[in-house]
Amino acid sequence: MLAASACSKPSRPVKHDAAPVAAAVVADAAMAIDATAKKLFVHGAGRCGECHEKMFDEWEVSAHAKSATSARYKAAVADANDPACVRCHVPLADALPHDIVTSEGDTCDVCHTMKDVVPTKDGGTFTLAIDDMVKFGPRCDLKDHYFHRMGCSPVHKEATICGACHWWEPKGVPVFTEYADWKAGPDSNKPCQDCHMPPSKAAIATGSPARTGVPHHGLLGIAGDLRSRALALEVATKLEAGKTVVDVALTNSGAGHPVPAGLPERRIVVHVKALDAAGTEVGSETRSLGRVLVDASGKEVPFWRAVKVGSDTRIAPGATWKETFALPAAATVTVDVVHHYADDDLPMLAAKVAVGKTVSKGRK
């Protein structure tokens, strides 16, 4: 048991774009009470962060922390007008409809009270044990303490817990298929957590000893670079019939599911440029890879308006996408591979190749 003084610093505010809360609502939402006067043991992430500072800092900048408040989500849910979104984006909405914890989306007390998880293509089911002081996690070697009891939960080590939200195919339209894709792929013996929550040696709570196997809570690898490590790039160039011929090969060497993953609007974009001896661009071409959802007329639309798949050029685990580009005669070629979503471009791989040479980048 930790001494009370081990976690005595003030409650930490959540820094992301939380919705305004009435003054009467306590910021850390400790021990919220529902309409039947039954105690609900739910706390804001800042309260959890008083003791679990490492996990809080990692979670706070993750997509989970912004699942209910990001501008993209709010715009999409307003347009879609679909209550199905709330189940995973605001899991505590029914229990705490006007509470600060609700605005935190996939907060600590969502994942760590989750049990009875069943993934399905129609949207999985789960129970949140918020009427008890237990907090579930993958470790079974921890003792109860004064703030909450410890729940030994094997499912927290399994992909099943992720599949409850990361598999959704409404009316047969594949919107989120990461869980199903992973399960059908060659790495189904490795749970999501191996890559998305890699372990390290750290203290689980303030005042506790450092332990091995403590998961990272940022969800994109320890350095947030999981996407940039997913692919390997090979670029071969030659001058042929007055053209610069560029052969580009992208191999999914690091992901256990097709890439790009997640929202159907995500893309892997390949930019190829030809430069003359002075470094001036003389030509360029771009290719975009991903799953395109369309309406009945075949027009690309947001997933909530889609009725079928128009095309799917995602790169499966272990597979290679190849394309040849024919550009004006040049001295050098640059290839930039980025992960694109909305207005964000995350650099993944880049190569600069003298014409006549071959260059490889990334993990084979």
Q: Give, in spatial order, the strands making up the sheet with the most strands.
A: 13-8-7-16
Succession of helices and strands: HHHHHHEEEEHHHEEEEEEEEEEEE
Q: How far is it from the N-terminal to the C-terminal residue, by CA?
A: 46 Å
**Largest sheet, if any?**
4 strands, antiparallel
Description of the molecule:
The chain contains nine helices and 16 strands. It has 364 residues and is of the alpha+beta class. It folds into two domains: 4-215, no CATH class; 228-362, Sandwich (Immunoglobulin-like). The strands form six sheets. It has a four-stranded antiparallel sheet, with no helix packed on it. It has a four-stranded antiparallel sheet with strand order 10-9-14-15, with no helix packed on it. The protein has a two-stranded antiparallel sheet with strand order 1-2. The chain is globular.
Brief digest:
The chain has 364 residues and is an alpha+beta fold. The protein has 9 helices and 16 strands. It starts with 44 loop residues before the first helix and ends with a strand.
